[in-house]
Write a structure and sequence with these properties.
Blueprint: E1 3-11, E2 15-16, E3 19-20, H1 21-32, E4 38-41, E5 44-47, E6 50-53, E7 64-72, H2 73-85, E8 91-96
Antiparallel strand pairs: 1-7, 1-8, 2-3, 4-7, 5-6
Helix pairs in contact: 1-2
Length: 104
């Protein structure tokens, strides 16, 4: 199996068709049959739009969110195509991954 860790980066308050973008991504992934995904809010971050820290109340909603999936490469490509077809321009990382379960 050719498994990757697909990470998609969005801002906490960004929306697509009235829905939070990270929720939209999770919904689309579920509709595609992806077994699971998670969204993680960062404590702080910086990028093309500057630096954002959780400690500043006035920056609420601007923190980075990473939406992460462990999937086969073809499924990651299918999800990225859905993102592009929806007109979204999002930064992503697709990294080789190995999935396993520990056995006592």
């Amino acid at each position: 199996m050719n498994t990757v860790c697909l990470q998609v980066f969005v801002s906490e308050a960004s929306r697509h068709h009235g829905k939070l973008t990270y929720e939209w991504l999770l919904d689309v992934a579920q509709e595609l049959g992806i077994a699971g995904g998670s969204a993680f809010v960062a404590l702080a971050g910086f990028g093309r739009h500057g630096r954002h820290d959780a400690g500043f109340f006035e920056l609420a909603g601007e923190l980075p969110v990473v939406v992460e999936f462990f999937v086969e490469t073809a499924m990651a490509d299918q999800l990225l195509k859905c993102v592009a077809d929806a007109g979204l321009t999002l930064v992503y990382a697709k990294l080789p991954a190995e999935i396993g379960v520990t056995v006592p």
